[in-house]
Amino acid sequence: MSLQTKLEKYAKIAVKMGANVQPGQLLVISAQVRDYEFVRLCVKEAYAAGAGYVQVDWSDEMNSLQTYMNVDTETLCDIPQWMYDQRKWAQDNGCCFLHIGSGTPGLMKEVDPAKMQAIQIASGKKFMPLQNYTMANEGQWSIVALPSAGWAKKVFPDKEEEEAMECLMDAILTAVRVQEDNDPVAEWKQHTSNLRKYCSWLNEQNFRELHFTNGLGTDLHVGLVKDHIWCGGNEDTVKGIEFNPNMPTEEVFCMPEKTGVYGKVVASLPLSYAGKLIEGFSLTFENGKVVSYHADKEEESLKNLVEFDEGSSYLGEVALISYDSPISNMGILFYNTLFDENASCHLALGRAYPMNVKGGTEMSREQLAQAGANDSMTHVDFMFGTRDMHIEGIKQDGTTVTVFDNGNFVI
Amino acid sequence: MSLQTKLEKYAKIAVKMGANVQPGQLLVISAQVRDYEFVRLCVKEAYAAGAGYVQVDWSDEMNSLQTYMNVDTETLCDIPQWMYDQRKWAQDNGCCFLHIGSGTPGLMKEVDPAKMQAIQIASGKKFMPLQNYTMANEGQWSIVALPSAGWAKKVFPDKEEEEAMECLMDAILTAVRVQEDNDPVAEWKQHTSNLRKYCSWLNEQNFRELHFTNGLGTDLHVGLVKDHIWCGGNEDTVKGIEFNPNMPTEEVFCMPEKTGVYGKVVASLPLSYAGKLIEGFSLTFENGKVVSYHADKEEESLKNLVEFDEGSSYLGEVALISYDSPISNMGILFYNTLFDENASCHLALGRAYPMNVKGGTEMSREQLAQAGANDSMTHVDFMFGTRDMHIEGIKQDGTTVTVFDNGNFVI
Questions:
Q1: Chain B residues with CB inside 8 Å of A53's CB?
Q2: What is the per-residue pLDDT across A33-83, written as a single tens digit (0 to 9) for each?
Q3: Nearest chain A Cα to B31, which residue?
Q4: How many CB atoms lie within 10 A of CB A2?
Q5: Is residue A85 within 8 angstroms of chain B, CB to CB?
Q6: Which of B36, B71, B75 shows the shortest C-beta gap to A33?
Q7: What contacts B158, CB < 8 A, 6 or more positions away?
Q8: Is A63's CB within 8 Å of B43's CB?
Q9: Residue B326: is the preceding peptide bond cis (ω within 30°)?
Q10: Who among A51, A53, A82 is closest to B89 (CB)?
């Protein structure tokens, strides 16, 4: 099967299984300009699926880099109102979102971290009122990925650029279950049904807390909110439309009790954040809050993440993935959260997903806070799963059940 | 010299001679996504020139085609307010514009002409209040071109796509005076100074009317407004910043008296309009207004152009170009107005340029109308110059002076 045919299949599942655009609905695709050929396939699939309108929100990270290097912080932080209005218009029209990511890890490494931080905060504040649309599943949204030269060379540094691109494309297609002669739609249905089984089991257990330990030095207690809900695989919007927020996805995830986290977590993979690559880092929590941290590389970026706002020093997500998962079995470090988070248990600093607590998508921000949910302008995943991860679940009555042993689900 | 080096030179003159972005100024580049590598060169040149910020307004004509084919007219005509606000924001910030065109002639040929017309009118109405910024040179603006596969195959139908692209690229670079080992900036200064000499001579003559005749059947009288000004080559903004609106440019142009045009004009080249290619057409004028028209191909599009609004059936521009000009000497039909208009005398239906009458850039729309200027939401050039074009200038006292003979300036 030619690459073109595979890409057509990929575009189809991105539009139909991912964003699942409905007849008459507005689809907003955000993508890098270099990926225009794949975007055209997605636009075609979207209209074939009956989309009412497809709007593409283009960007070019190479121009962004030039802009960050040449323009002063004040100008960069003064986000024009029409950018907000553009997104608001889409949401007011009941849109769904498809994001096609192909960013180069560490591209912004030469940019002053304080400048990056200021831009992130300005953007976070400006778009805060629009964050709920995706966080609370008011409309469908999906994130998929394509290789770029810079990313491929980071993943396969010993290969020539062209070969590296091909290898990364293969790895991505494997991860999203697009193969020769398979029916990826059927595969995805089977797969998400499996993930939902894990969720059911975890929801039945109704753990009060999870205790993570491994040889890397992680010894972390993560309390879970009362009436929590484990989610995974496809999700439903508040109007009941199924979609897959991430392609690939291998995780089941839940809501930590904001103040119920303590101990130390050691990251098992680098984190690509705001154009920087943070490596060899750990965080220590008390009463839910990060009280100390360290990174071998880009510690200032880690500091910026933790100190982004009040909520970015608390957890908003805990996610479980068997070490023996399809993505992790490829043995590739992707330097990209969409893939690495699905190869490894992970946590997120920042805002919790309302859907992870009973009735959450109908709660106000205040009600969510009362339920124990963390709030923030940001939400950043980082990976800490290992081959020897052990997880003990502590039930409401204090009894314990082993959830993970040697990196994998026990059930 | 490698193509890359030539493209860097081209980007430099587009940014510095074309838009002439000033230190601290906002530059808005509009471009097709497939041209992202050239855009990056322009962004780099702009920041090197001290641009305060570069914003890129991306589009993809292939997605536009899919959208026009699949979305109903009502939705397409409902232009979101944020699009208007985006352009207004740029103008309020004193921006300059650089448009990089590479459109495929006739791409929209399958789209219902009535639909195209409705979209053009809706867009014209929506953006009408913002039209003056470029029409009256409130800020600098420039239009340049790059080859695209579809355009190149139209110009060189017998060549393979890759070779056609190379030939068109060469032709464009020749037309914009980017050559091996030349200094295109110096070339442009010399060239625009030559064009200004023609303007000076024409302004001294102060003709009441021009009379065009040739063997193709053109016999047209074009009255010129009182206190008209011939312009050509580079121009100045109202703040006195030099720029080149078109690259290439070979024309000197003036303002017809709205009601002072009569006779028949036969087009000498096809016209690419709203995605359609209008061929073999002629227009007959009485008291300035088109009273009849004909086209061998796409006559409905010609009808849509003439009937776009009240002003689109009157002339807004008359431009003189020697038949023996660098672009016309290449002997290439470009199917693109930016090039073909610079190979041939042309006229424009629609709005006149305020700068073509004394004090015009400070006049209100009403004052311009009183001065004899045509007004419209549109401005579309079409070519009628030929190898045998004869132009007789009629002075205010009725005496005549030959301006063109056998297709060329006599002076």
A1: 67, 71, 75
A2: 999 999 999 999 999 999 999 999 999 999 999 999 999 999 999 999 999
A3: A33
A4: 7
A5: yes
A6: B36
A7: none
A8: yes
A9: no
A10: A82
b/e sequence A284-295, b meaning 16+ C-beta within 10 Å = bbeebbbeebeb
User: Which residue, A117, A96, A98, is CA-closest to A26?
Assistant: A96
HEC states along chain B? CCHHHHHHHHHHHHHHHHHCCCCCCEEEEEEEHHHHHHHHHHHHHHHHCCCCEEEEEEECHHHHHHHHHHCCHHHHHCCCHHHHHHHHHHHHCCCEEEEEECCCCCCCCCCCHHHHHHHHHHHHHHHHHHCHHHHCCCCCEEEEECCCHHHHHHHCCCCCHHHHHHHHHHHHHHHCCCCCCCCHHHHHHHHHHHHHHHHHHHHHHCCCEEEEECCCCCEEEEEECCCECCEECCEECCCCCEECCECCCCCEEECEEEEEEEEEEECCCCEEECCEEEEEEEEEEECCEEEEEEEEECHHHHHHHHCCCHHHHCEEEEEECCCCCHHHHCCCCCCCHHHHHHHCCEEEEECCCHHHECCHHHCCHHHHHHCCCCCCCCEEEEECCCCCCEEEEECCCCCEEEEEECCEECC
* A57 vs A26: CA distance, rounded Å: 13
Neighboring chain B residues of A51 at a CB cutoff of 8 Å: 70
A13 CA: distance to closest CA in chain B (Å): 19
Are B71 and A52 within 8 A, CB to CB?
yes
Q: Retrieve residue A185's tokens.
A: 């739609």
Exposure string of B354-363, with b = 16+ CB inside 10 Å and e = fewer, is: bbbbeebbeb
Residue with tokens 């078109």: B246
- Show residues of chain B in contact with A54, CB under 8 Å: 63, 66-67
Q: What is the pLDDT of residue A1?
A: 63
Tell me if A36 and B33 make a contact (CB, 8 A cut-off).
yes
**Is the Cα torsion angle B273, B276, B282, B283 positive or negative in sign?**
negative
**Tens of pLDDT along B95-142?**
999 999 999 998 998 999 899 989 999 999 999 999 989 988 999 999
Query: Are residues B89 and A80, on separate chains, in Cβ contact within 8 Å?
Result: yes
The rounded distance, in Å, linking the Cα atoms of B117 and B119 is 5
**Residue whose C-alpha is closest to residue A345's, from A290, A265, A274, A279:** A265
CA-based nearest distance B88→chain A, Å: 10
A chain contacts of residue B36, beta-carbon cutoff 8 Å:
33-34, 36, 60
Q: How far apart are CA B336 and CA B189, in angstroms?
A: 25
Q: Do B34 and A36 touch (CB under 8 A)?
A: yes
**Residue in chain A lying closest to B43 (CA):** A63
Could you tell me what percentage of chain A is helix, strand and coil, using 3-state DSSP and rounding each to the nearest 5? Answer: 40, 25, 35
Task: Kindly tell me the sign of the dihedral angle through the C-alpha atoms of A198, A201, A206, A212.
Answer: negative
Closest chain A CA to residue B41 = A63
Q: From the candidates B34, B38, B55, B60, which should be mutated to test the interface with A, based on the most A CB atoms within 10 A?
A: B60
CA distance A124 to A311: 12
Contact yes or no for A260/A223 (Cβ under 8 A): yes
Find the length of chain A. 411
Q: Which two tokens stand for residue A57?
A: 């929100």
Q: Which two tokens stand for residue A294?
A: 């360290």
**Paired tokens of B383:** 């070519």
- Over residues B334-382, the pLDDT tens digits come to 999 899 989 889 999 999 999 999 999 889 999 999 999 999 999 999 9
Chain B closest CA to A33's CA: distance in Å?
5
Res B179: pLDDT? 86
Structure tokens at B384: 């009628």
Cβ atoms of B22 and B50 closer than 8 Å: yes
For the cut 70, the answer to whether the pLDDT of residue A384 exceeds it is yes
Hey, are the CB atoms on A60 and B75 less than 8 Å from each other? no
